[in-house]
Amino acid sequence: MEPGHSVAEVKSAEVGVPRASSVLSAVLSATILLGGILTIALMLYLVVSSYSSQPYNDQWTILVFAAKGGDLLSPAWLWERYAEHRLPIPKLFLAADLYCFRDNQKFLLGSIFVFQFLHLVLLSWSMRRLGGWRGALWLTGTGLAAFCLFYLSQWESFIFGFCVNFVLAQLLATSSFVALLLYWNQLQRHPERPSPKFLLLSIFATVACTYCLASGNLLWPILVGAALYLRLPRRAILTLAGAAAVSTAVYFFHYLRPGAHSRPVFSNLGAPLHMLRFCAEYLFGTWAHHGVYFAVLIVFCELAIATIVIFLTLSYLRSFRAFGIQLLLMMTFWLATAAVTAAGRLNSISAGQSRYQTVILLLWCCGGLLLLGCTFFARSRFRHGFLFAQAIVLLVFIAGAIALPYSISQVRRHQFRLDTAAASLITRVYDPQELDWVSWGPAAHDDLLKAVSYLRNNRLSVFAGDRPAMLGQRLQAVYPNISFSDCGGAVESMVLIRGPDGPGLRLTGWAWDTTRRRPASSIIVATEQSIRGFGAVGGWHAGVRDASPSVPGSYMGYVAYVPLPPPGSVISVYAVLPARKPTVCFIGSK
Asked: What are the pLDDT digits (tens) for 157-167?
């Protein structure tokens, strides 16, 4: 198939369409594209506003290994299995963040955003190059892809640096399919002397995906099957099959299955209903959570209608055959990924984790693009079918907007817990409640404290900023502007915590910037006018708003830590206000 054929069919499909419908379609396409751009902007704002350098969960594995004297660039470490994955490529990114960027996560988070944007560019380009999409069809498809690639339900993949492997793996999977289809297109134009560059690029992308996530191994049978369907030359098919055999053999050489995860065979046979429930939660986790039932109803109705429409118009897939095949290949891969994830993680991990939505949103994206393409080229049969498909996409955007507050509240809670854990580590008041949440639980406390000492001694992560150096300094030397009237707040509780570095106190309460009508930035705890502790602001504290309706928000609760002071000492709590000049405001004392 020549790519130019699709362009001709796009033009022919527009013949005879009423002008009013064309104008309405153009308006809807511009609206959908704007919705996609706003989704990207909102995700970027969320990444920047919720940024924290505090290590979380899997990242401690890297830090514990480094703290014990390990070399993050050693071949043995890069090749060592992590869970069921071999992650040499993501481990290189993690090593670069530690060695070159002081483990501040900015390099990782920036890489994640760039990879996802490149994925959007690749999808939009393949719509034009492989599908010949132009005008309203291309704008609508690009807007839908932007929405799915950056929608906030996958927030964990964007604010958790370790998830660079999730985002990169999906980009590489799409690249492998696009490269294979470019090779096929080239064969249509020059069957006598095809260049192997695109075939080699497809193999390279697949190998790289395999060593970002274990699910990359699923690409090989899909690619070989696609090569057989497309009737590629025998040499190309044998090359793909040989690369698949070598890559798979190398991947599973001396491979030991992680004991914590279920065996896929037994998962399927022993708990089919449990697995079905896991798959349903995995596939519909974008919408299926408390408080957005109206959005869920919209989406399920749209899915039912879209399935019927795609079935009726699927014969028009030939009009954009190369891109249509790409969409079907992508959907096959991500459905297989969902099934394998359900089989392997059935008994160990919740299916509703945010990072899984990075995969599932791409699956829905492909289904939406398939709907758009089929209805567009079927307009001679269903005159207003494309308008109907655009309306469905727009309703998905509206349903997504309804569900946004839930995702935003999840991010705020996550950020507050990270900031609270950072305050606990910096002040050496090791709160078991926060350490268990930020790492792997009580059994790992010894390793965690070794990693914390490594970070502190090398001024990495949360110890690379200004706050650790403030401990012991006079309050007025750091914050010369002290206010007693620009904030509201209280010290509501004080709990003794005993840890390996001595006893400390956990203080809780609320802090509000009355001038700017927003929560305080953070908390400073002082004894004898010297800075001794820190705290984080942003916890849910509905009681203040119930008592004072004039306060517009409820995320003003704080948790702060300070080492136990000598008997008779007065503990003073100050709110740090977001002003041009460093300013603190007195809240209360104990």
From this structure: 999 999 999 99
